[in-house]
Amino acid sequence: MMNRKQFIQLSTAGIAGMALTPAWVFQAKSQPAGKGACMIEVKTRRLNLAHTWTISRNSSDYKDNVFVKIEKDGITGIGEAAPNVRYGEDADLTTQKINDIIPQLSKMNFYHYQEIKNFLDVSITGQSCAKAAVDLAVMDWIGNAFGQPLYKLWGLNPGQAPRTSFSIGIDTVEVIKQKVREAEKYPLLKIKVGRANDEEIIDAVRSVTDKPIRVDANEGWKTKEEALEKINWLATRNVEFIEQPLPSDMLKETAWLKERSPMPVIADEAVKSAADIPKLAEAYHGINIKLMKSGGLLEALRMIHMARALNLKIMLGCMIESSVAISAAAHLSPFVDWADLDGNLLINNDPYSGVGVKDGQFQFPDRPGLGVREIS
Ligand code: MG
User: Fold this and answer.
1) Is there a common fold for 18-146 and 152-374?
2) How far apart are CA 94 and CA 288, in angstroms?
3) Coil, strand, or helix at residue 325?
């Protein structure tokens, strides 16, 4: 069995080798011997963005996501973490958090997955994406153990899943027009704004297409008056809803905005897990649930039920993720009003295949668990 010192040695070797091995740049394994053997592998893989990805906060050409593979009793499960700088996350910290719990996790009974959720809630703090990676791997393992896709275990009808939108990041007018043309096969678009040239961006989109769009300001507008003015203008441009118009801590101002807004106001950065939802119900019409914020599928389920009880609309979103985490979220999508699960469509080296998209509609593969398969 690998001890803690060996983990650290492996970690150091992994980080040192990063520049040389761009694919699986980090690797740590836990291999207890004997009956009920459990192997847990943690690796970082670099996902390359097809276009430089710019939102109101930052810009990037790639993302380093952390993958967790569990093998126990001859059954495997795969999970993914997409560390996000907005929440103080990065691949190294995420890997460390996961490595720290491997010795205990590998001894747990995966069929008691609710117990594993409780264990993760107390043992992984501060990197919710690390929790998500383990939760996804365990739930994939469960689906594989029962031989059924997750949506079936939850009693969901995949025919009820909403169509997903495709996101267009902030860019120059010419590049935005080009991106909108490239996105022709997607019936719904989500447009990022929140910098000085919002109107220019929306006009560029509208010069190419009249399909419905959703708009995400990523906390980019700074006063309630500015936000209301922008939203009233957007309402004349066939926009379905506005996501996170104001900074997440401006709850009172957002409640003021909700009363006056001609379109639904959706919380994203303001909501991570179920505990955040009650206080948001007065200020927003709905919430954007993401597995990386919630810490996985089981917490996302709690959030869905709580949001419904509070009469909130539900959107299911994502970070820049491979088909592992996107497929996981897609299995929950029949529960929600709006889907924005396009992270895997924005990268050009997805290491996995899983739930596909055709005309915006999810195509669930005939495979158990998350339904994903490693392809590179
Ligand atoms: Mg958002």
Assistant:
1) no
2) 23
3) helix
pLDDT digits (tens, 9 = 90+) for 232-252: 999 999 999 999 999 999 999
365 Cα to the center of ligand 1, angstroms: 27
What is the model's pLDDT at position 157? 97
Q: What are the residues facing 70 on neighbouring strands?
A: 40, 77
Ligand 1 geometric centre to CA of 269 (Å): 7
pLDDT of residue 56: 80
> Which string of b and e fits 178-196 if b means at least 16 CB within 10 Å?
ebbeebeebebbbbbbbbe
CA 104 to ligand 1 centroid distance, Å? 34
What are the C-alpha distances in Å from 79 to residues 21, 131, 307, 361?
21, 10, 25, 23
Q: 85 CA distance to ligand 1 centroid (A)?
A: 14
Determine the distance separating the centroid of ligand 1 and the alpha carbon of 53, expressed in angstroms.
13
Write down the domain spans for the chain.
Answer: 18-146, 152-374
Rounded to the nearest whole angstrom, what is the distance from the C-alpha of residue 150 to the centroid of ligand 1?
25
- CA 256 – ligand 1 centroid, Å: 20
What predicted TM-score, i.e. pTM, was given to this entire model?
0.90
Say what the pLDDT of residue 207 is: 97
Ligand 1 centroid vs 80 CA: distance in angstroms? Answer: 19
| Residue 221 exposed, middle or buried by CB count within 10 Å (0-12, 13-18, 19+) | buried
CATH number of 18-146: 3.30.390.10
The CATH number of the structural domain formed by 152-374 is 3.20.20.120
- Alpha carbon of 314 to ligand 1 centroid (Å): 13
The residue type of 93 is L
Interval between CA 148 and ligand 1 midpoint (Å) = 31
Q: Which residues pair with 81 in a beta bridge?
A: 66
Rounded to the nearest angstrom, the distance between the alpha carbon of 103 and the centre of ligand 1 is 35
In single-letter form, the type of residue at position 248 comes to S
